Amino acid sequence: MSALHSTTAERVTRRAGADGAPLASGEGLVVRYGGRTVLDHVSLEVRRREVVSLIGPNGAGKTTAVRALLGLIRPDAGTVRHEPGLVVGYVPQRIAPDTLLPISVRRFLAMAGRSTAADAAATLDEVGMAAVIDRQLSALSGGEYRRVLLARALLRDPDLLVLDEPVQQVDFPGQLAMHRLIGRLRERRGCGVLVISHDLHLVLGATDRVVCLNGHVCCAGEPETVSRHPEYVSLFGPHAAAAFAVYTHEHDHSHDLPVALSPVVPAAPESGTAPGDSG
Amino acid sequence: MFDDFFARALAGGIGIALATGPLGCFMVWRRMAYFGDSVAHSALLGVVLGIVLGIEPNAGIIIMCIALALLLHLLQQQRRLATDTLLGILAHGALALGLVGISFLEGVRVDLMSYLFGDILAVTGRDLLWIWGGGGAVLVATALIWRPLLATTVHEELARAEGVRVGLVRLVFTLLIALAVAIAMKIIGLILIVALLIIPAATARRLARSPEQMALLASLIGAAAVAGGLHASLAWDTPSGPSIVVAALALFTLGLGGAALASACLGRVVDSARAEP
After folding, report:
1. CA distance B160 to chain A (A)
2. DSSP states of chain A as a string?
3. Which residue, among B56, B23, B55, B50, has the nearest Cα to B176 in the 3D structure?
4. Nearest to residue A224, comparing CAs of A167, A180, A271, A183?
5. Cβ within 8 Å, pair A102-B161
6. Where are the domains of chain A?
7. Which CATH superfamily hosts domain B5-275?
8. Is the minimum CB–CB distance between B208 and chain A shorter than 8 Å?
9. Backbone phi and psi for residue B28, each to the nearest 5 degrees, phi listed first
10. What are the 10-residue block averages of pLDDT along chain A, 279 residues in total?
11. Among A73, A168, B121, B277, which is least packed, fewest CB within 10 Å?
12. pTM (whole model) above 0.80
């Protein structure tokens, strides 16, 4: 949360005109696949310098929501807005590189555009993958590929970084490094970050706001608040909630649930948690 | 220089191979071999169209190939039928329609064999203009869409998120395949066109370290196959298309054998190095 306290001054120095407006927002998104409603009026937004975690069980529509927000699919209903000239860095979920192309990691990174060879090497080093720069993309393991994809997204110097299950297939030291990296990214690059995860613990480190999705938005707000929300508890079980509470705070899962917790995304001001509202 | 029919065929064939090398690589990378095949099968219907409309058969072929490619492009948006089923229906449907259509054309002598398998005797100076003009256009257009097409091929979703106009790029690529197939038809014949697109690319795959290398190698290997195949065709009076494809196949096999030999030798070196304590 420390990042949030320090942002007031920094917000003033943000790009002119961007103040207050979300980088990307989707309102009332509805997506149906073959008669099945995957997203049911989901609203989602990410602001500059904000890390938003989208959590939910398998099949909750997390990836679909992100794809709709990025404009990769057209929702059946709802509107999507992007800040003009928004640069997106996207790390999709696909686990292994599926390429028949002979292409080196170096060249793959160069394709991100906007970057020099030195940038590429430095960024690859930042994600701990400096050693693979001359390897062929098809020769990478799933975890290596994922981190190379992250480097490629960073090289675009994005306004909005979107990570779909960033630590899936990444070993434990890699996961820790990834979390530190996500926290640093916001600080240094000032971008908004949207992280998808099936597990709240995995995204805990640097998250400002959590959106819990299961077809619809179950609950949203600060991580701590969401972890005590009945919908979250029923979705992930009391065990997950308890484990989460222990992880963050001393007091065990308490039952004084915040009544005003809004089920839609921009966290309602009355819940006292809306960090992005001041602008 | 191009008075000689053989020189014309050679110039045409090599022109085709150079133009289709990069395109063939994309077909291999994007798993579109059967797409090209389906487009080629509609060429005969294009001949019929050309004759019926009283326009140049080459123009008829180009129009029909582009129409089929666009139809496939549209049909692939739906999800009720798998792509391979669609390709099968359109490819064989178009070929059957072409064969039936030709039989209706009374008083017009159509050399079916030359359309199916190619004919080096049939390459006229006018055809050469079509081939080099069309081939040049294909090459230039491929170069122009190279970056976005490559990005789309490496990772379509990523390219889309990064702002590449994936739909447009794919459409242009589809049209280029149609154009390439139409101009290659004269020499290779519609049955075997796709072989000239994919075998050189597949041969180049294990030799190349970058997409551009593979594209260049595919063009050169294709040109070599055309030269070899046409010479064989002349020497032994075999049909030109199949001869070219056999030559391409020989190069592919040679590449496989060479790679196996290289790895075996390398293995032995490693083994002997290990044996020495």
Report:
1. 7
2. -HHHHTHHHHHHTSPTT-SSS-SEEEEEEEEEETTEEEEEEEEEEE-TT-EEEEE--TTSSHHHHHHHHTTSS--SEEEEEE-TT--EEEE----S----S--BHHHHHHTT-S--HHHHHHHHHHTT-GGGTTSBGGG--HHHHHHHHHHHHHHT--SEEEEESTTTT--HHHHHHHHHHHHHHHHHH--EEEEEES-HHHH-TT-SEEEEEESEEEEEESHHHHHHSHHHHHHHHHHHHHHHHHHH-SS---S---TT--SSSS--GGGT--GGGG-
3. B23
4. A271
5. no
6. 2-87+160-278, 97-157
7. ABC transporter involved in vitamin B12 uptake, BtuC (1.10.3470.10)
8. yes
9. -70, -45
10. 37 41 89 86 89 85 91 90 89 75 91 79 85 90 86 88 79 74 75 81 70 84 73 67 46 41 39 39
11. B277
12. no
Closest-CA residue of chain B to A111: B151
Q: How far apart are CA A73 and CA B123, in angstroms?
A: 48
Domain boundaries, chain B: 5-275
Of B155, B160, B214, the CB nearest to A102: B214
Of A101, A136, A156, which has the smallest distance from its Cβ to B153's Cβ? A101
CATH number of A2-87+160-278: 3.40.50.300
Chain B residues within an 8 Å CB radius of A103 = 154, 210-211
Instruction: List all residues of chain B from 14 to 43 with a beta carbon under 8 Å from chain A.
Output: 28-29, 31
Pairing type for strands A24-33 and A77-82 reads: antiparallel
Q: For B208, name the nearest residue in chain A, comparing CA atoms only.
A: A102
Mean pLDDT on B168-194 = 88
| Residue B165 touches partner A, C-beta closer than 8 Å | no
CA distances from residue B192 to B77, B100, B117 in whole angstroms, order as listed? 28, 21, 7
Among candidates B31, B147, B209 on the partner chain, residue whose Cβ is nearest the Cβ of A102: B209
Angle at A147 between CA A141 and CA A151, to 5 degrees: 135
Q: Does A162 touch chain B (CB under 8 A)?
A: yes
**Is A148 near chain B, with CB under 8 Å?**
no
Question: Is the CB of B210 inside 8 Å of chain A's CB atoms?
Answer: yes
ipTM over 0.95: no
Q: What is the pLDDT of residue A260?
A: 38
Q: Look at residue A7 in the predicted model and tell me its pLDDT.
A: 38
Which of chain A's residues have a Cβ under 8 Å away from the Cβ of B158? 90, 92, 149, 152
Instruction: Choose the closest CB to A101 out of B29, B147, B161.
Output: B29
